[in-house]
Here is the input.
Amino acid sequence: MKKNRIAGLLTLAPLLLFAACTSSTPELSLESNWLSYTTQQSVPVTAEGEAIETLKYDVTFSRYESTLNAPFKIHYSEGTYQTVLSSTTVTVDGKSEQAYKYRTELNIKVSFSLNADQSETFSDSVVTETVFLSVAQNLRPIGSTRTVLSHVPLYMPSNPPKTLTDENGNGVAFGHYNYVLETDYSETNKAKIKMTNLLVDEEAKEEDSNAGVSEYNVSTKGKGSYFDNEQILFLLRGVNLSSSLTFRTIDPTTRTVDKVKIADGPTAVQEACKFKMGDTDLDAAIDAYEISLAYSKSNAGTSQKCVYAKKVGADGNVYRNALLRYEQPVLYSHGTLVYTLSDASFSALQ
Here is the structure.
């Protein structure tokens, strides 16, 4: 799997890798805005199988108007995206610590067409799990795993290859990827990363037990807050979006740590929302912040939009700064995947 394809492979599910040029990277000031009482510094203790919160999203595809008559198209059915926040116990520096466990899962069906030719329909999924410490410890990451089964376009809608698939039915205009990306932070100032390509055939594995496995280390040492990629959409709930912010994370395309910041915004908006919250069917305009994020590079591509509910108060933060809407461009300018909150379940104890 080529390094320059990694960023594209990961865009099927929310992932924000935005390198930015800045002279300094101060530590972020964080609050537990995902809790009702936002000043709580520790991780709430939950029973096995109990969640602090569960958020569910409807995922729809919005095709760019400029591509409506293009010969090559991607087709998405309505998908689902779910995030679950719970607590767990980990050993850090020889001590037992209470930590957050954050799991996300995207499921969506996708197919491709080139003029009259139509591919089969594929069931794509992205599952992530990350463990990190409390706000008091700056949400320090412990480790993460991302498991991906995805099919992505490899060409612009108006400039496709001559055929959709080859004579064996393998994609020519689109790519098929299935891999696991694991990141471990057990060593100080180091991320140990392991990528396993699950498409490697059994014959290759018999010849080489490490076939399809790539391992490398990245130094995370530096000034400013460092976070794992799988934390990013979550941690933005814990910062003050009314002011500028910068932090660091790994860019897998370069295998280095880069600085990250909000590209545009924040803009105060009222977000029209319809979602279930506990036993209540909510239909309201919620005060929110809209931000846009993008690479600060010459090939940055289209920015990604996030809309977060504003904090209501320190002692009764009703909407928990939840991500209300997320817009993610599909590779090669085919359109946008839109994630819209449909159900929010918050623990009564938090």
About this structure: The chain is about 5% helix and 50% strand. The first helix runs from residue 6 to 10.
